[in-house]
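Lay summary

Proteins are chains of building blocks that fold into shapes. Our project writes down both the chain and a compact code for its shape. Here are two examples, one after the other.
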Amino acid sequence: MSPAKQSHAEKSPALAVLAPAGVGTVTLVGMGPGDPGLLTLRAAAVLERADMVIVRRDAVHPEFLSHCRADVEIVDSGDGDPAKLAAKAAKTGKNIVRLYMGDTTVGCNVAAEGAALKKAGVPFEIVPGVSSITGVPAYAGIPLTDAKHREVRVIDASEGGVDWERFAVPDATLVIMGAEGSVAEVAKGLVAAGRPESTPAAMTSLGSTTEQETVVSTLQRLAPDTKGMEAPGLIIVGDVVAWHDKLAWFETKPLFGWRVLVPRTKEQAASLSEQLRSYGAVPDEVPTISVEPPRTPQQMDRAVKGLVTGRYEWVVFTSTNAVRAVREKFSDYGLDARAFAGLKVAAVGEQTAAALVEFGVQPDLTPTGQQSSEGLVEVWPPYDEDLDPINRVLLPRADIATDTLIAGLTGLGWECEDVTAYRTVRAAPPPAPIREAIKGGGFDAVLFTSSSTVKNLIGIAGKPHNVTVIACIGPQTAKTAEEYGLRVDVMAEKPSVSALAEALAEYGAKRRAAQIQAGDPLRKPSQMRRGARRRK
């Protein structure tokens, strides 16, 4: 637990539950309707201190579990009685978190499991979550109340046998759960009870996830219009459904539901994937290269010694991997960012500069225009023997780096020491389903952040399908993609991964607007391929 989070936890008295000596606690936690971003701060805090998490593995997004420690034990709730599993583990002194979809008090088995824990003498607490009853309509752009409609009635239709006469009040908004397989019966029951066939009705499936789908209809047409929609689904009946056209915000995001291939490691892709999610996309991170230490460490050992003894005037970082390699070498020697005192530091671009700042080093020089070796050379000062006591520059780089930067700096009078800080090798092929999706058009877009990602992705997984939108970070990467027979659809205005994601979002927004203007169904690129399943 980080110091900041630990301090917050210590200030929260609710985090401490009085338990008998040697007995842990059980916390019953609601995850919300599906979006990991709706997890409450309270829920995240108890997950951080959990020794064991009990949850349906097939129902939990990995991001929920990212709040846990690396050594947490994940137990599938289908492997036995969850209450018995929790009680048994708690009696060994472990802290247990039992996760439920939605809110703990609605549609969950909290009553029975809590009672079983009480009977077993195990202390527990309940952490509510965002309920699907309010969360899903909010993501569908449907307020349950407005100035004219103040009454909301919630119906659980999962077991059937609902007396629809009780819900015939014309001005009441109905929220109906568990009716995915009985939409026709629900509509007929409400009409028979007195609700007009023209009553607005909507159904949202997989609410608050990037696979969400909302169909707006009437009681008369709801069953045929929602045929084939996936569970879980929520039905809303009432005049408030009309707000959907004005308030829909989630499903109208520029890349909503797009499956985007990001050929980078999880560490490299973290900020890029988060940006893509903000546009509604579903990023899939597939590393195309593997970063490994140099075959012989002597060069880096001498370079670090030279940094400490004042051998260099400048140190140039051309990638985040170079920053990571130097940090790791510093750690081996018990050094930190203070070793850069008195040195001038340059970064080839925004991402590399950010990695240095995270390390505690503020770059003295970055390109003002093109973020590349050429851009760095353009702003690099020439060597001046009166102003510069040392003319030596250290370049810790990859084993396959080009000589553009060295040639440029040498031409400005500097002496360069090119040191292999790490090696890049082609990554292992991704799993078969990923390879099939790449070649078969299962991805809506792929982001290429360098020429090597183009070559390596095609080498380990095959050529992307022609319906897949190809987005490239710059002209050189686009040229490489075209040489491999790919059609480049998007290119960033400046060579940064953030600008690349933004350019793809703009492309998606224009594409969506064109489909709406033409009166065409809204279809993702992957739905354009032959044989793709699509709904009207």
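And here is the second example, written the same way.
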Amino acid sequence: MLKKKLPVGIDDFKEIIENNYYFIDKSMLISELLDKKSKVTLLPRPRRFGKTLNMSMLNYFFNIENSSKNKELFKDLAIYNSDQMKYQGEYPVIYISLKDIKVNNWDLCLNKIKLLLEEEYSKYDLILEDNRGSQENSLLELSKFLYEKYKKKVIILIDEYDTPLVTAHSQGYYEEAIFFFRNFLSAGLKGNPYLEFSVLTGILRIAKESIFSGLNNLAVDTILTNDFKYFGLTESEVEEMLNYYELNYELEEVKKWYNGYHFGEELVYNPWSLVNFASKKRLESYWVNTSDNSLIKQLLEKNDKKVFEELELIFKGETIWETISENIVFDDLNNINTIWSLMLFSGYLTCQEKKVSAITGFTSYSLRIPNQEIKNFFRQSFIETYTKGNVHFYGTMMEDLFLGNLDSFVNKFKKMYITAISYHDTGDNEKYYHHFMLGLLLTLGDKYIIKSNRESGYGRYDIALEPKDKNNYGLIFEFKIGDKNSLEEKAKEALNQINEKKYDIEMKNNGVSKVIKIGMAFSGKDVAIESIID
């Protein structure tokens, strides 16, 4: 039997239904929105989890334009047999998507916004005046026109409302962007007498004080609450898809690769990855290649001891407990807790449970990497960050280390190090070099138990990697800082310290018979290395 096509990269609801693409019915989102009927609803979810497709569905359902034709799109869906069908085609709809506004300066950003608004105006043969005030008030003015035309209040749908703001922050024009969008959204959503209701989607809940100031009618449903359970794929939906495409034999591997996201109490799969897997029939990383992933780069660049200690736990498959803020304040990105919040809401981490302190009353959340796809992404990001993109060279260097080919490892490390390090990054602080090495080595977490600054023998080693297979080499690293003329001596001193303080005793007591000991001495872009196999 000829199977339905998979809608890879297609997020227009009408196109999917009319062309008989495989579609997982999320139409009861409409019923839930009508039941709760908040004036403004914000639904932050990670990218590629069905936000744009759902918003497109809302547009075709409510829009008074072409209502009869649009009604046919829903005839095979759950909403069609509900009482809520009486609202189909009953409202004028303003629908804009900001997901493609990713430019490097404010003038370009404002111009793209203007083009989007002009396109929406042109549907009704209207002209948007070419001035800032008209653009900021465009939602309100268009609402007024539509109300007067149809004698019905307006539904406003704004998809990926935060994309321009995230981009503006990374490109250095956040102040101009937030000022515009605060006025733009306030005019359209706050006290708009022509508004029936509005739905916004995005990745983050940007703090009310930053953008939704004075908007008292805002209802927010994040992944921590998940009252609207129509984003991502459930276990039963995934099983049905795999059965349909005769891929059910891959279910356990699919779980390992693409499952693991906790939205509220519901466990969901990544829909973008599932659709791509079913299409290509290969277990690969799909979701992580759909963005520049600037947030994880910000995390790695912090070079913070606490971050690396917790990433060490994450790579070992353990969980970390963090205080999470649902309100993202971009001025607060230097706060490590804000970084973990960004990672959670962006889909790089998932939350399994929460606990409330009996003493402080603060709530903390357990965070972990959700699946193999994201783990691979973290590994790749570390490699690219710490080798300036020389991934293949890194791989061969680590193979030499794993196999005990020390001369080859040392030569490759020195070549890699001189290009990976900047004079502006280095200093006389051993912490920088320690974190640099830990970043390189954390990617080996599948084969090693990685430990940093732990006691063993008569002291505390810098980094140790205990092999999970005891027949492989264990690794112990000790670091020193010196000047360019003393590096060789400092490297020998570091190696002697490993021997004298018996840093390998814990590993050998655990059944590891062969240990590679490496002393390293750093001075800016210069490094000396001494090593032995014991």
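What can we say about the second shape? The radius of gyration is 27 Å.
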